[in-house]
Amino acid sequence: MPFATHSLLGHLFQAKGMTLPEGDLEDKTVIITGSNVGIGKAAALHLAKRNPARLILAVRDEKAGQAAAAEIAKATGGKVEPEVFLLDMSSFASVRRFVLECEQRLDRLDVFIANAGIYPFSYKATADGLESALQVNVASTLLLSELLLPLLQRTAKSPLHGIPSKPHLTIVSSYTHHFIGELRGFGDGTIVQCANDEQAWEHLAYRRGKAILMLAIPTLVKMAGPDVVVTTADPGTVATNAMHEATGLNALAIAVFVYCVARTPVQGALPVVWAALAPIQSGEYVADCKVTPPSAMVQSDTDGSISDSIWKELRAIWAK
């Protein structure tokens, strides 16, 4: 069955069959970015019910974060009191400050879910000089993931109650990466540079970013080592405010599509939480709460050279 047809049928019929692994998070620490709304908040609610010792909501807006924290605390009857850490994914400086705060305030990190993302409908550059979706969805997400690896790796060496457990680093991806059959710069090490070209910008920025993100995962898996499980997860099409910038016919088309096939945030969070909890191999891509092959283009990087080249480009950007 063609991927597009399979994906649409999945949205319509498979959400009800998704279930989460058993187990709790007693004495464990969880961080979720973009967790004041949508999929991130729903994931936080799912995980809060498993009684983590600390649940960190990493958000850009403190007021919105505190409101989400209060809602989650109420849902657990006060058993879990989420903490709010500030994080602006459109700023590399903010990412670094956030990691420093984590290093200072947390003694372990068992589950990290990189959920924060945007879906722009026009070209916008950040203060760091990158197209906004490229920075938030790719560059900052990968920078944050790499900088949190030492804390995740130390946690792996500190088993709770003598029971070995591998920390999970889960990045929210999207089935839309399948719709990118080729990328400019794929063969010459300029994928990120080409994606940042304002003159070539188009409404493919979101899915293109997810494709770049998926290509970058093998190198992150190598950096994480055998004791940290790195996964990506597709929540499906979810009714959130991620596309709030849409106007006119774009807004109407999106509204109709979302009404017809979208999952709720609670449903969309299930594959993400599943990927963060399930005993699966590092590097796996998850959709509909099961391990699923990524796109043919992603699979074509058999030696990881494209993945390495993306990281090389990003390191040059981060060093500026």
UniProtKB/TrEMBL annotation:
Entry keywords, A to Z: Oxidoreductase
Q: Does the keyword Mitochondrion apply?
A: no
One Pfam family matching this protein: adh_short
Q: One MF term in GO for this entry?
A: oxidoreductase activity
Superkingdom, taxonomy of origin? Eukaryota
Indicate the secretion signal residues.
Answer: none
Q: What is this protein called?
A: NAD(P)-binding protein
- Species source reads Dioszegia hungarica
Q: What is the lineage of its organism?
A: Eukaryota, Fungi, Dikarya, Basidiomycota, Agaricomycotina
